[in-house]
Amino acid sequence: MKRLTLVPIGGLANRFYAVASAIAFCRDNRIDLRVIWFEDKGMGASFHRLFDLDPSLEHVTVVDAGWADYVYDRPRKRNLWLPGFFQKCMFDACVYESDVLSGFSSDDLARLFEKVENVYLVHYCRFYEIRNYGLFFPVKEIQALINQRTEAFEGKRVIGLHIRRGDHSIPTLKSPLSLFIQKMEMELEKDKEAYFYVASDSAEEKNKLISLFGERVITAAGDMRRDTLSGIIEALVELSTLSKTRKIYGSLASTYSCLASDLSSIPLEILSVDGNESK
Question: Which pLDDT value is given to residue 169?
Fold first, then answer.
């Protein structure tokens, strides 16, 4: 039986897209899928602490990497590229992030599987059509937190805002807070009863909006560090809650904004000083 071993990298949204793409690709091509999930500074939680798999996914296995699984880690300077030597022996073909950056596509992957049976893949974004975003979903404990937060939406028209900051300069410089404020003012001119759910990794930005718009802002003050379990849980709760709004105003160069829109097929407008983009 052919098998794809996927190592998803990046933050929560990047990994979600990579895993969901791999599930869809393997289903369509009758390939077994094994996901090796590593914790790192951008992902402070194991897969199974966040998600449950749909029981129908009999061909999918997700492994939360332990010390014995580091042979599957992507080769890089920090591990002296040593895993690469083992991977060349363990797999018929290896596709790394440099290959993806060079344009390696799902069509290339399909052609590769016509020649070999056991492929190793590192990926960090959507690479195949995802028709079902519900094949893995928040564990009950986290879903309860999501339900509790979305209770505040009852009877309200709520618009989502995703304001990304952290250590990423593009969203900070290209999607300044002033653009979000303009959109909020515009929405309130159309509907003075509108509310805004603000998801952000910046408490400062949240507080600025609360000071300007008061009770019209719905948000939460949780752990925002992505290298901690509580921070990643909060990121997943915010992502899922954001997806329950009527539409989203998002940040440039943010996979998180796009995923929140895709989860519930709601409109997304990316705010940028270079010109807004709608989806």
Answer: 59
